[in-house]
């Protein structure tokens, strides 16, 4: 070989390795996570194992706002889709801060249309309901919906007339659709709000609460009316006095008419413009600390034969925060939050919604704010709820538990088992933040500053050792978006809701992979993405809703759309198609030609 040829060869090799180095730095080698799932579930003895409640994700709407939601088909059809998927109607709490300002008068002349527009009388400090309030949403909500109504404990006038008169109207109009009553909203704040004296406690509350409950029962003596106790604002890690489940039980709140206890949880406070962040929301360690602090509440409720729920919750208190609550990050957080809650025995989590809030799953109608105009439609949280419905969907009762050794600040994972201890589903959530300019705005909420991630979007190879047999077909569906900060272009494996009527707009496209030798399941997951893995036959038995048939119907098994993949992800708009290894191979081939 001549000196010139040898020099050129050395130059080619140098250039090749320099390009390999630069490519590796730019893209990063794909991280790998290895997980082993045992042949049987390892249940923790300290927490009673309970099947997943099919209403794990439930809903809370201010009572005054419900007519506005019922005015359009968005909420009705959204609930219908979720109900068809999980096999039961949705649970809707009508309550919130306005509950303790609400009274009822059969003589009010406010029309149904006024209620739908948000008018509740000339005194804005109070919410006055009348017969037309119930007419304003009659027949306008999904079949099978059950309701919880929060009564006014603040107003003691005429022996709690506001609460008792409202309860009578609720019983008359909802009938068997009423699940139970709640009495008072965030009563542990009554002292600071001036609603009660400084010595206010659960013990002091008990006779007042009992008086209202007894009077409500007298309205319909033949019906066993149920109640939930609690509804406290302070989180379990910040209990005030005896305002927690052990405290109210000690004060006397127990018995057959109280099958549920509840407390509220907002992981970040947005009140008064306090700083909040997406990073805090997506930190699994922080979530784990918050949620597991409720274990004593769960155990206290179950010790008296009742169950515990998070009665009101969302990403950021005081209506949420643009740029956090209305982003795809909130959808990923919802999935992690709901499954972690279920794993410690929290039966339901009620996500709070109003007509004009960034943390809402749905904006029911167009509205103006200052000089801006906003359009009705779905926010990312709705897709988190739909993804959870896919996780829950099964003909059998399922148990959920975190997968040992596969969770950290940026990752979480869960296994789902049937009552015969068979592994049925796997959920993996990549909580790593990746911000994009694509889909970063939405016509439904405020625009936020866009902080774009400088590096390419990361991808992780997940290797899971399972008890599943080699060769079995698996379905993968993904909760996905262009980035953590996306407010639009969010979907569940291509599935979307119509922002016009709430019906399915595009169908779920399952990815099909096979279990490898030794039960190994392999797939890739992007930063800011969640993946559900289950047997393909399970997906066929619990088919996805389709855009071609009415709500409350689903596709048949042979209508499940799918695409085949040998190891994991198929190409789509949010996925890097060109890997560093592909680039290296191309460069090597090019070098050999020179």
TrEMBL record:
Low complexity bias locations: 543-556
Region (Disordered): 538-573
Domain named Beta-glucuronidase C-terminal: residues: 414-532
Pfam families according to UniProt: Glyco_hydro_79C (PF16862)
Record's compositionally biased regions (Polar residues): 557-573
InterPro entries linked: GH, GH79_Enzymes, GlcAase_C
Superkingdom, taxonomy of origin: Eukaryota
Protein's name in the database: Beta-glucuronidase C-terminal domain-containing protein
Organism classification: Eukaryota, Fungi, Dikarya, Ascomycota, Pezizomycotina
């Amino acid at each position: 070989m001549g000196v010139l040829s040898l020099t050129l060869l050395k130059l080619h090799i140098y250039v090749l390795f320099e390009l390999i180095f630069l490519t590796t730095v730019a893209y990063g080698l794909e991280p790998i996570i290895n997980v082993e799932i045992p042949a049987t579930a390892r249940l923790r003895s300290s927490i009673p194992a309970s099947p997943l409640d099919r209403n794990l994700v439930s809903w809370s709407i201010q009572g005054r706002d419900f007519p506005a939601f019922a005015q359009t088909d968005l909420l009705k059809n959204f609930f219908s889709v979720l109900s068809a998927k999980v096999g039961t109607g949705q649970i809707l709490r009508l309550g919130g801060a306005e509950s303790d300002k609400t009274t009822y008068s059969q003589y009010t002349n406010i029309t149904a249309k006024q209620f739908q527009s948000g008018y509740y009388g000339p005194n804005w400090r109070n919410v006055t309901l009348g017969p037309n309030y119930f007419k304003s949403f009659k027949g306008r909500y999904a079949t099978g919906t059950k309701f919880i109504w929060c009564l006014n404990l603040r107003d003691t006038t005429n022996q709690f007339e506001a609460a008792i008169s409202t309860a009578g109207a609720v019983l008359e109009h909802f009938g068997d659709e009423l699940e139970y009553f709640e009495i008072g909203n965030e009563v542990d704040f009554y002292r600071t709000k001036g609603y009660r004296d400084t010595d206010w406690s659960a013990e002091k509350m008990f006779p007042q609460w009992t008086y209202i409950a007894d009077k409500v029962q007298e309205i319909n003596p033949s019906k066993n009316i149920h109640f939930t106790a609690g509804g406290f604002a302070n989180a379990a890690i910040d209990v005030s006095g005896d305002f927690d489940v052990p405290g109210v039980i000690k004060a006397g709140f127990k018995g057959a008419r109280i099958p549920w206890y509840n407390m509220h949880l907002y992981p970040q406070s947005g009140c008064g413009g306090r700083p909040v962040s997406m990073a805090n929301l997506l930190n699994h360690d922080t979530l784990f600390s918050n949620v597991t602090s409720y274990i004593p509440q769960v155990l206290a409720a179950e010790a008296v034969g009742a169950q515990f729920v998070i009665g009101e919750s969302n990403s950021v208190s005081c209506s949420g925060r643009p740029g956090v609550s209305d982003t795809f990050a909130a959808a990923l957080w919802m999935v992690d939050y709901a499954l972690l809650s279920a794993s410690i025995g929290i039966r339901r989590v009620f996500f709070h919604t109003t007509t004009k809030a960034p943390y809402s799953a749905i904006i029911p109608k167009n509205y103006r704010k200052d000089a801006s105009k906003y359009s009705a439609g779905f926010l990312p949280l709705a897709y988190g709820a739909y993804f959870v419905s896919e996780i829950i969907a099964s003909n059998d009762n399922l148990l959920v538990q975190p997968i040992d050794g596969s969770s950290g600040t940026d990752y979480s994972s869960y296994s789902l088992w049937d009552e015969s201890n068979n592994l049925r589903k796997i959920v993996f959530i990549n909580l790593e933040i990746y911000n994009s300019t694509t889909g970063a705005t939405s016509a439904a909420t405020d625009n936020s500053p866009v902080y774009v991630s400088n590096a390419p979007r990361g991808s992780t190879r997940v290797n899971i050792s399972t008890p599943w047999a080699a060769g079995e077909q698996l379905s993968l569906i993904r909760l996905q978006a262009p980035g953590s900060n996306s407010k639009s272009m969010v979907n569940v494996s291509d599935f979307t809701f119509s922002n016009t009527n709430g019906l399915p707009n595009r169908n779920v496209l399952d990815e099909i992979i096979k279990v490898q030798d030794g039960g190994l399941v392999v797939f890739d997951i992007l930063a800011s993405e969640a993946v559900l893995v289950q047997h393909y036959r399970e997906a066929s038995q619990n088919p996805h809703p389709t855009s071609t048939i009415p709500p409350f119907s689903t596709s048949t098994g042979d209508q499940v759309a799918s695409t085949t993949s040998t190891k994991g992800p198929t190409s789509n708009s949010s996925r890097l198609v060109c890997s560093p290894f592909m680039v290296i191979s191309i460069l090597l081939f090019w070098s050999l030609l020179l």
